[in-house]
Structure formats: C-alpha cells, structure tokens
Write a structure and sequence with these properties.
single chain; 367 residues; alpha/beta; five-stranded parallel β-sheet; globular; binds 6-O-phosphono-alpha-D-glucopyranose; repeat; glutamine-fructose-6-phosphate transaminase (isomerizing) activity
Amino acid sequence: SAYDAGDHESYMHKEMLEQPVTAQAVLRGRLDERFGTAHLGGLDMDARDLRAVRRVKILGCGSAYYVGQMGAALIEELARIPADAEAASEFRYRDPVIEPDTLYVAVSQSGETIDTLLAVQEVRRKGGRCVGLVNVVGSAIARECDGGIYLHAGPEVAVASTKALTNMFLGFALLALQLGRVRDLSIADGKRLVAGLEKLPGQIEEILAGEDDLVAVAKSLAEARSLFFIGRVRGFPVAREGAQKFKEISYRHAEAYQTSELKHGPLALIDPEVPTVALVPRDELTERNIGALHEIDARQGPLVVITHAEVDLGEIGARRIDVPRNEPELDPILLTIPLQLLAYHAAQHLGHDIDKPRNLAKSVTVE
Ligand code: G6P
C-alpha cells in the first residue's frame, strides 16, 4: 500500500521515528526569522483580527485535548491572552457561553471525531469564530471551521498518536508566536522562539536515537500494576499525555497528577510497588520538583525522572532520562518524546497489539 509499516514492527514505531521529518513539515514556510514571527495564511485572520482576540478556548478529545492544554499554556505565556483547553466531549452539554472576542480552536488528527465536530458546530451556531488545527485535509472538522492550520504530519495509522500530536504542539507554538507578535511579545523573544523551533526537529531525532537505552526502564515500568506520572505547570499536560499513552497501549493503570498536589493525597499510595515518572525540566520550578522527588524516594517509590543534564538530583535514587534543552516554553514536546518510547516498549514487552489497542478506535465518529 502507499503507506505501510515497512521494516518497522508496527505503525506506531514507524510514526514515532518519522517525527524529525514530519515536524519540519508543519514548520516549513511558516517561520519568519527576520521579524521573529510566524505566518499562518490558512487562519484567514489579519493583524487586526488577531489583536481583537481576548480569550482562547481550545477543544479536542483524548491526546488532542492534552496537547490542547500544552497549547493553552504556550498561548498564555507568549501572547498573554487567557487560554484554556476543554474536553470537546463535554463542551456542548453545558450550554457554553460563546463570546465574539474569544478565539475557539478545534484540534484533531483525523478531523472526524464526532465530539470535536459537534463542539465546533456549537460554537458556530452561537456566532463564534472557530479555527482548526487538523491533520487530515478536507476532513469534516476542517470544513466546518472558519480557517486553520493544517498539521502536515502525513497519514497516522496507530491508535496512539505520536507524530500528529507533535505537530499539534508545533501548530500551537506557531499560533502563540503570531498572536504574541501582534501584541507585546518582543522581536527579540520572537527570534529566540523561531530559533528554538528550528532546532526542535534535530533534538527530537537526538531523543529517538537514544531509544535502546529506554527499553530496560520501560520493561520495569511494565511490571508495575499501577504508576504515577507527575509534572507541574508546563509539565502537567505532558504528564497527562504520558499517562494516557501508557494506559492505552500497556493496559496498566497510570494516573497523572500535579507534582504539587502529591502531598495532598496520592503520596499515601507511594511504596516500592508503585513507580513514578516525574517531569523535572530545568526551569523556575526545578528545586520545588526535586523536593517532591525526595518525598517519593523516602517512601522507596521507584522513580524515573525526565529532565535536563544540568539538573542535579543529588542523592535521589532515580533512573534519569535527559532530554536536550531548548527554550523553556518549548520543553513540553521534548519531554513528551521519551514518554512515547516508554509506553511503546512497555506494551511491546507485554506482547500487546500496539497499533490496535483493545476497546479503542483511531477515531470515534459516532456518539
Ligand atoms: C480517539 C483515539 C485517540 C485520539 C482521539 C482524538 O479516542 O483513540 O488516540 O487522541 O480519538 O482523535 P482526533 O482524530 O480528533 O485527534
């Protein structure tokens, strides 16, 4: 067929390894080094329209919802516009207030997810503007939206999204950059982020090249009946996505928690049988995050820490996975890649059908 798994043992594996190339495709022709901004013609919004946006509401399901939370954080940080993401499957049931100066963003790989499509229709029926971040060209959601950003990830077959998810993040980064630059984001910051985005595909490749080193740790996680994924602020949606992937293909119970909330409940569950995968990038929260790792370590909770080489974990007994550093705003996507590999190799070790996990469909097109 035109698109098959080739020499790979599964589509998911092939799609993970394609990411350095597919990530370039979503950026191509959209970055402006000179003015430190992005050009997104498909949005069909001029600088005035973009400046009129007072709030951003992102709608998606599953992994698209979690990457929507990463996107909301990017928009709020770079453009200083209040932004949040909501599960599209809940949205229309609460008779949401649709505001004319809110920009609604529907995010979907397939463009056919019924819950996301119906959320878009709810927005448009009530007079709101909805743009799409969609992979499949000409899909139902793409057609229903007022404009959008195509993700150019190519066909994605495995139920667990990898390359499309990465391009969703990059699509949000482009949107955040453009929204920021028509407002108060400085040209210097714009250029810093453009340079960061240009570096990303190569850094994703670097992480994927370390795949073999992650197999043993993935196998040890696969042995646990239950595990936690923790992160804070930028890292929390990453933890949610990591737990989701792990659940979907390994069928192990994995729960995402804010690192800061651990002491308010789940710490009671930590013992030598319950591992924690912690996201600890080098940022303004590193020291606080390390404090939480001490709490886990003191209870003999096994720890896998996704971090940067500069971070000193001191005496903490942990298996560390270092990812390359980029601009802090762009860290989430680099932290996500090892979580894909961990979920993949855990499921592989358990002998599951990785591309078609039980009970799940690639896209859910009926209510
Ligand atoms: C299904 C899949 C998920 C996916 C979600 C949204 O539930 O199993 O992996 O994240 O749909 O799909 P979409 O095509 O809208 O991104």
